[in-house]
Amino acid sequence: MAVPHGRSRPVDVACALYRVLTRLYPSAFRREFGCELLVTFRNQATDVCAGGARACVAFAVHVIWDTIRTSATLRMPRRELAPGSILGLMDGAMADGAMSDSTMSVDFVFAVAGVVLGAAGWYAYFAVLPSYFH
């Protein structure tokens, strides 16, 4: 299959995988920012592909980590904290006892990381590595 002028097959495959990866984001976030995410990814992937395999792997790791971190952050429940309530030193404030209000499950983070890293590995196996053996 011929690739249109100015586009490359590895970039197209990477964009297809990234489109699947963006399913980790909440649907409202995808509706609002999905097109911009894909355009930005395509532009960056096109630039990175010119830098060789090492640059592609570094870019893939960065994108995977950023997607996991962002999707987990977007899915965390927001809770309202009273000012100064971390230690409970204000009148009527209840002590939170922690600086972080994160309630993210570690299991979720590792499950998402496994899926994303597996997808990146298969992408490297089928799209990136064969070009080095020809």
Helix content: 55-70%
Beta-strand content estimate: under 5%
Outline the biggest β-sheet: none
How many DSSP E strands?
Answer: 0
Oligomeric composition of the shown chains: single chain
Give the structural class.
Answer: mainly alpha
Radius of gyration: 20 Å
Shape: globular
Outline the structure in words:
This protein is mainly α. Helix content is 61%, strand content 0%. The protein is built from four helices and no strands. It has helices at residues 9-21, 27-49, 53-75, 106-128. The protein is globular, with a radius of gyration of 20 Å.
Topology of this structure?
Blueprint: H1 9-21, H2 27-49, H3 53-75, H4 106-128
Q: What's this entry about, in short?
A:
This protein has about 130 residues and is mainly alpha-helical. The protein contains 4 helices and no strands.
Q: What labels describe this entry?
A:
134 residues, 0% strand, mainly alpha
